[in-house]
Amino acid sequence: MLKFTVPGEPRPWERARQSGSRRFNSSEMTAAKATIAQYADLAIRETHRSLEYPMAGNFSVICTFVLGYRRRSNPDLDNFCKIFLDAANGVVWHDDCQVVSLLARKLRGCSPCTEVEIIHETELSQCHRTGNQETRNSFHAGISARVRQPIGTAMTDKLKAKQAQLFREEVLGCPQG
């Protein structure tokens, strides 16, 4: 599992601009992608020295985008995900088509940042390979802790449990048990 935090206000993806017949990305978006790639590369070098990146195989990604309270606009969540997934191309994975599940949320906070967890398929399938109930319970407890709504929303414990169960079964293919 690869975990890292990119400090600063999350930047959403924006459509490439055009000048005559030439298309280009804004310098802000290019800089944001470079920053994300830099933090991903740093996390890889600090925690996974023995593995060769970018890796082949499938990935599951969990992102939390913490927007500052002063931000006036409210961009779509999928645009935050898109810039992150594109920035990790060639660093974590070869292409973002290798991401088979994505859990994302955005919320407001005092310290704007992007928190990321990337799980490789070998870790995802661990709950299937081992008959160890303790391993499965630990894995599911971690997923359940991540499937939470932002502070201030009224969500019953029963609904939270159902949401976590659906995520485990449909996305990860790991039934609770």
Overview in brief:
Helix content is 40%, strand content 23%. It is α+β, with helices and mostly antiparallel strands and 177 residues long.
List keywords for this structure.
two-stranded antiparallel ribbon; alpha+beta; 6 helices; 60s Ribosomal Protein L30, Chain: A; single chain; 177 residues; 23% strand; 4-stranded mixed sheet; 2 domains
What does this structure look like?
- The chain is an alpha+beta fold.
- The chain has 2 domains: 2-124, 2-Layer Sandwich (60s Ribosomal Protein L30, Chain: A), CATH 3.30.1330.70; 134-177.
- It has helices at residues 27-47, 77-87, 121-124, 126-129, 133-146, 157-172, and strands at 2-7, 17-19, 22-24, 59-68, 99-109, 113-120.
- The strands form 2 sheets. A 4-stranded mixed sheet has the order 1-6-4-5. Strands 2-3 form a two-stranded antiparallel ribbon.
- Strand 4 (59-68), helix 2 and strand 5 (99-109) form a beta-alpha-beta unit.
Question: Percent of residues in beta strands?
Answer: 15-25%
| Main pleated-sheet profile | 4 strands, mixed
CATH architecture level-2 label of the largest domain: 2-Layer Sandwich
Coarse shape: globular
Number of helices: 6
- Element-by-element helix/strand order: EEEHEHEEHHHH
Provide the helix percentage: 25-40%
Q: Find the CATH topology of the largest domain.
A: 60s Ribosomal Protein L30, Chain: A
Structural class: alpha+beta
Briefly, what CATH class of the largest domain? Alpha Beta
Strand order of the largest sheet: 1-6-4-5
CATH homologous superfamily annotation of the largest domain: Holliday junction resolvase RusA
Taking the alpha carbons of the first and last residues, their distance comes to 23 Å
Radius of gyration: 18 Å
Average pLDDT rating:
77
* Total number of strands: 6
